[in-house]
User: Which sequence fits this backbone?
């Protein structure tokens, strides 16, 4: 605490000597001194917290004002008019003309994995439909048998926009569209981005990638469901798996369950990946609720089906030894080039 | 939901091994969050008696006690509770013992022998709070005089038990499983043992009659749609005391603090059955009613605007007409199903009470609970589906316990408002369908036994159809499939043999968009670029920094933070932000891209939902001076690499400064100010006769570069992949190759500034366009003298004929043709 005074003197000196970029880098960036200091607030006694916070904010404003003022002073130069159809600019030396640089490129590890399992599902005869990223209450909840005010809505910490749209918390938001669009048999897999309104940490993110599957036909059973999901997972993880099904609750399936597999990394002996339990809980699944079929004008007496949904991020982290979920969307090239 | 095993044991036989109980619950009921043995928590705590007491020589507030734990040695302990006296029985933690209230925290507090103001204190005498069995932290807990000295505290307090905690989520529609009885029933059924609920729970005919009516009250249900059933009865002569230890311990194990015998009984009934019971002080209900009525009034109604209630949690809540309340004829006395009011609370002087056992609408209750921010043991249970049929039998048992433990007498007739009494529900199961859907092969006998074990009543059997009467405590069973779930749970999923479905061998193909994205991903990652994934959420500040209009964005009503409150209107917003991050991380030269969706507020599709089109955003940045000239051209290099590969022809570039701003689509408009208008362009192509805009490309606006601390050489593009799919040509032309040599000449054109390179190229192409002639044209230099209004463009033109060797004079002819044509627009060679 006592060194905040020191920091203030330092800032006052730097305000006159450092450039704007240097100031920003030294104090305000993620690794900047002020940012780091502020992160320290959790170690400050409660009665001092507010004062500490105020001081930090005052110092921050001091630097920001300096930066803003200088922006006004330095008049921004406009670039000159170019010929947009030319292949390069006037007077460019041959070796400095536009060219593809010799750098290490990469496609995102998450998308690589998504491509892998999309191909597996395709080989099993599933259609692929991408998920919407903003949707409405009807698709996200109502058509999935969540009446308005249903407590199960609490299971999903959902984001809403001011115009009343909902950010899908699960890829099931596409179920009704797919089921309504076609007469059975229907085999579809839905990869897509979903959101959860929850605080982030090493293993929680507000933005996630999920993969949903639905299968509707005559005489479809729980036994079919277990076999289909197992077939996919064994192909994807390239190993023979034991599965464990546990009861769960989702309004859009009946019966509903949680699907776990024996840990393919330790052969059920227990390791850090499975939390030393020998099992990894992978997804929710179940037989599609008759009401969901009815909402899509499918007769539940004639057809039945199953659905599943799993989070891709965790699977990718497990498979690639990524310790923190936040790495996936931090955009750091250093991280991305590793994969 | 917490399940103390010793209590469950009173109702059914449990497996001996705790792991087996956990396994049954996890595989048959729902996810087990944790389980822990309380004896560990109370290890090293024994009952002691105070033998001697003296003042601390150096601290007024402290005293020195000598206590005995049954052996000859007296132990010296320092404490600051002046009310302690010789002979008191206390709970004493030995050195190395852990303070129970800190046991489950990240920093358990271990007691040691320490000097307190110069006097050695060997261990600690605990308060209720420290023992985690109550809230009093000022006084050392005084145990009853008959507490056996030296006895283990957990033993004496009946806390030697294991508590299993189940994840509430899995029980969302099972109000009955929020009571120990319900869980005991499931465990029993899973072991194949028939469960038998206690008689009071099953009782159909309830008689609750007063020996003498001395407390008069009535109930007026003005909100029948929100309160399906309301049972109430008055009792007189209750004596409020401490609860017996068995009762306290039952609550402590369920994480509920004991208060007094009456309140504890209502809570005990709740943890047993899942049915919350509330008790009002009858005299306070009367006194608080200034109409001086000669009888009590209970009104169930929605609150009036601006009505307030001071509740048992110490808060004052402002109610609205959406909140259901219990009131006397004037004031709210409880928020229905959630929490009682202070004004009618039970205290040590309470003599007469009104007991309430009711059923409230779970949806309304949930909404009120979220709005008011109140989550209680009671609201948690009411928001799960509870059966109104159980209100009365459970009330009746509560009355019995109060009679027994508080000396209460029934003092009014029973009031039972249940206007829409339900018939017993029957569900008929088609056993063939059940076996088909579950993939099982159960016989009718097995099915009947399995369901009767969890108290279904079998009422009919005809061929494959078996009819059951649904237990009255089950509110979740509506349709056949609900019963299937009970069957497969109790029977065990592991008994199902997985069989792949029989499916025709139809081939499936990937959507064009997925294929296009894959292609782009491959081109760019093979060209040294890195694919990023970023959030759809951006901050107001970031949008301002990149010169994009925040008013165009969808705004979140409940963002996680200010930094994440807007939905990005373009992919470039996020990419430019990440460019800064990577520059700070010391990457000198990079190309990053993201395939994503952006949203613009009023840009809706036919479903009236925000239009979602896939976009490719790309940012290139370099600080190594390996490139020269406007950075625009570097982005163009990458863009054309993609567009050539996916076969898009007839590209057209129009400087942003020259375009008609108003006529551009909204997703383009939002991007324009992010670029330098003199060195950026809208790129389009033509399909048929329609111009299709592909995107915006160019140098990043100099102001934006400065604000975000980007390199001077920063360039970007954002293109719409729907437009690409729309204009992408799948026709490939097979060019005949020439076996004759090429003739190559460098030709220099002097081109006025107003004439674009594309025009020159177009004329050249037209001039050499002749049957059998093939050409390669490459620009090798563009030179402009300072101050000049023309520039010299040097183009290498290679020509060949597919039928014969091209001669110099043929080339010369073509050259002259070119010369003549370009002269028309003031170009000289």
Assistant:
């Amino acid at each position: 605490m006592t060194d905040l005074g020191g920091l203030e003197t330092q800032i006052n000196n730097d305000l006159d000597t450092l450039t704007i970029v240097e100031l920003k880098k030294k104090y305000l960036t993620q690794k900047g001194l002020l940012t780091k200091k502020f992160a320290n607030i959790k170690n400050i006694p409660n009665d001092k917290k507010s004062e500490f916070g105020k001081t930090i904010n005052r110092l921050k404003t001091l630097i920001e004002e300096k930066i803003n003022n200088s922006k006004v002073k330095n008049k921004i130069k406009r670039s000159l008019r170019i010929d947009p159809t030319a292949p390069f600019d006037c007077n460019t030396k041959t070796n400095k003309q536009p060219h593809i640089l010799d750098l290490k490129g990469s496609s995102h590890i998450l998308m690589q994995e998504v491509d892998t399992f999309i191909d597996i599902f395709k080989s099993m005869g599933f259609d692929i439909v991408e998920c919407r990223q903003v949707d409405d209450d009807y698709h996200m909840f109502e058509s999935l048998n969540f009446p308005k005010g249903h407590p199960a809505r609490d299971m999903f910490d959902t984001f809403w926009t001011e115009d009343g749209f909902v950010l899908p918390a699960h890829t099931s938001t596409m179920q009704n569209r797919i089921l309504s669009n076609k007469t059975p048999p229907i085999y579809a897999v839905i990869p897509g981005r979903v959101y959860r309104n929850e605080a982030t940490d090493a293993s929680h993110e507000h933005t996630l990638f999920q993969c949903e599957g639905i299968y509707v036909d005559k005489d479809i059973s729980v036994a079919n469901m277990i076999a289909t999901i197992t077939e996919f997972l064994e192909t994807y993880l390239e190993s023979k798996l034991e599965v464990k099904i546990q009861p769960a609750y989702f309004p859009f399936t009946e019966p509903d369950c949680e699907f776990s597999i024996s840990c393919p990394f330790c052969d059920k002996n227990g390791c850090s990946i499975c939390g030393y339990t020998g099992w990894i809980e992978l997804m929710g699944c179940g037989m599609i609720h008759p009401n969901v079929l009815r909402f899509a004008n499918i007769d539940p007496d004639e057809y039945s089906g199953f659905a599943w949904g799993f989070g891709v991020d965790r699977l990718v982290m497990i498979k690639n030894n990524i310790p923190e979920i936040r790495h996936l969307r931090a955009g750091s090239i250093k991280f991305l080039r590793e994969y | 939901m917490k399940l103390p095993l010793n209590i469950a044991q009173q109702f059914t036989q449990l497996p001996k091994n705790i792991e087996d109980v956990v396994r049954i619950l996890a595989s048959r009921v729902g996810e087990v969050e944790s389980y822990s043995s309380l004896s560990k928590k109370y290890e090293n705590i024994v009952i002691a008696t105070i033998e001697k007491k003296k003042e601390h020589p150096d601290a007024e507030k402290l005293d020195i006690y000598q206590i005995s734990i049954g052996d000859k040695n007296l132990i010296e302990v320092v404490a600051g509770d002046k009310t302690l006296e010789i002979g008191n029985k206390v709970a004493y933690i030995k050195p190395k013992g852990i303070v129970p209230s800190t046991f489950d925290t990240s920093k358990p507090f271990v007691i040691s022998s320490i000097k307190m103001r110069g006097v050695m204190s060997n261990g600690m005498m605990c308060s209720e709070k420290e023992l985690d069995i109550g809230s009093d932290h000022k006084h050392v807990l005084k145990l009853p005089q008959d507490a056996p000295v030296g006895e283990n505290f957990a033993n004496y307090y009946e806390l030697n038990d294991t508590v299993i905690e189940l994840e509430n989520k899995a029980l969302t529609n099972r109000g009955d499983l929020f009571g120990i009885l319900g869980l005991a029933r499931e465990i029993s059924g899973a072991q194949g043992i028939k469960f038998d609920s206690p008689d009071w729970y099953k009782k159909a005919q309830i008689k609750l009659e007063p020996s003498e009516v001395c407390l008069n009250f009535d109930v007026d249900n003005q909100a029948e749609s929100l309160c399906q059933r309301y049972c109430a009865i008055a009792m007189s002569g209750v004596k409020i005391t401490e609860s017996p230890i068995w009762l306290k311990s039952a609550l402590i194990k369920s994480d509920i603090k004991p208060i007094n015998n009456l309140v504890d009984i209502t809570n005990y009934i709740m943890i047993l059955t899942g049915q919350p019971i509330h008790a009002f002080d009858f005299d306070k209900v009367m006194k608080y009613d200034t109409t001086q009525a000669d009888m009590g009034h209970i009104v169930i109604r929605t609150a009036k605007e601006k009505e307030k209630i001071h509740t048992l949690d110490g808060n004052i809540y402002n109610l609205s007409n959406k909140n259901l309340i219990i009131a006397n004829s004037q004031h709210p006395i409880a928020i229905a199903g959630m929490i009682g009011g202070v004004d009618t609370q039970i205290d040590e002087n309470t003599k007469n009470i009104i007991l309430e056992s009711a059923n409230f609408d779970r949806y309304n209750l949930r909404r009120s609970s979220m709005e008011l921010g109140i989550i209680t043991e009671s609201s948690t249970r009411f928001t799960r589906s509870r059966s109104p049929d159980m209100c009365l039998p459970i009330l009746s048992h509560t009355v019995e316990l109060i009679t027994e433990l508080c000396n209460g007498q029934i003092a009014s007739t029973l009031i039972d408002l249940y206007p829409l009494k339900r018939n017993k529900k029957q569900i008929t199961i088609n056993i063939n369908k059940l076996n088909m859907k579950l993939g099982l092969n159960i016989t009718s006998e097995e099915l009947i036994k399995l369901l009767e074990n969890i108290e279904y009543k079998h009422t009919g059997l005809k061929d494959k159809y078996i009819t059951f009467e649904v237990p009255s405590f089950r509110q979740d069973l509506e349709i056949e499939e609900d019963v299937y779930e009970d069957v497969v749970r109790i029977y065990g999923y592991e008994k199902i043999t997985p069989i792949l479905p029989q499916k025709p061998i139809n081939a499936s193909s990937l959507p064009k968009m997925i294929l296009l994205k894959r292609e782009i991903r491959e081109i760019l990652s093979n060209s040294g670029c890195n694919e990023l994934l970023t959030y759809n959420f951006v901050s107001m500040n970031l949008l301002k920094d990149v010169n994009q209009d925040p008013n165009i964005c969808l705004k979140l009503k409940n963002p996680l933070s200010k930094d994440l409150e807007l939905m990005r209107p373009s992919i470039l917003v996020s990419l430019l932000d990440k460019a800064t991050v990577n520059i700070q991380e010391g990457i000198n030269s990079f190309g990053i891209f993201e395939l994503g969706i952006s949203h613009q507020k009023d840009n809706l599709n036919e479903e009236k939902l925000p239009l979602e089109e896939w976009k490719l955003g790309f940012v290139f940045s370099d600080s190594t001076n390996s490139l020269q000239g406007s950075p625009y051209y570097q982005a163009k290099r990458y863009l054309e690499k993609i567009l050539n590969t996916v076969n898009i022809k007839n590209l057209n570039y129009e400087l942003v400064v020259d375009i008609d701003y108003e006529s551009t689509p909204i997703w383009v408009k939002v991007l324009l100010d992010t670029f330098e208008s003199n060195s950026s362009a809208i790129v389009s192509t033509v399909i048929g006769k329609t111009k299709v805009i592909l995107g915006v490309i160019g140098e990043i606006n100099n102001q934006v570069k400065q604000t975000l601390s980007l390199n001077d050489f920063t360039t970007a593009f954002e293109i719409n992949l729907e437009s690409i799919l729309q204009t992408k040509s799948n026709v490939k032309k097979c060019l005949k190759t020439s076996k004759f040599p090429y003739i190559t000449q460098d030709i220099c054109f002097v081109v006025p500034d107003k004439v674009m390179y594309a025009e020159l190229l177009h004329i050249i192409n037209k001039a050499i366009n002749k049957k059998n002639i093939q050409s390669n044209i490459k620009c090798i230099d563009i030179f402009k003298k300072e101050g000049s209004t023309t520039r010299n463009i040097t183009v290498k033109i290679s020509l060949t004929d597919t039928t014969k060797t091209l001669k110099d004079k043929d080339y010369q002819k073509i050259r002259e043709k070119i010369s003549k044509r370009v002269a028309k627009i003031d170009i000289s060679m």
